[in-house]
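Schema walk-through. Below, the input block comes first and the output block second. Nothing else is stored per chain. Lengths vary across the set, and this one has 170 residues.
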Amino acid sequence: MQIFIKETNNQNKWFLIELQGKLEQLNPNISFKNEPLGILTKKASGKDDYQFIMGNTQLEGKEQPLKKPLLVIKKIKSDDNSNNVNIIDQMDIDKVDTKEQVNTEYIIEGVCTSKISFTTRPTIIIPQSSVQYGSPQHKSPKSSPSSSPSSSPISKPIFNSSSPQQPQSK
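--- output ---
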């Protein structure tokens, strides 16, 4: 059997993306076909460092070479009779099988020579507008007041001389 392979002139670099864990679709009724999964960018700080942002999640990864290159191919089936329009006589019709002849072609879309491996836990991206300052989890920015009247501690408590354990009442 012969396999015909056509090569496209696609100059884009292909990567294999390796993630830890699994990706789950929350709503099975929504189709994500032909939708981007996220944004992959190469960091300016490092040679092989990449950043992948998917929704509100940020991943940091490194590029690693593959031991063997991986071909990205596309399978195309075509009818053999679709390109040939000929006038044939009755004798030729009797010789033709009822099965249609189908040719299969494989087109090379790209060659993957390296992978980007994301091995650390993802970082959650929280927009600055959704952060409420003053909560115990968040520190306030430098422009906000350092203390409020309700949170100021008593510097020197005053005790009654007769009973040093109880505070003085007014």
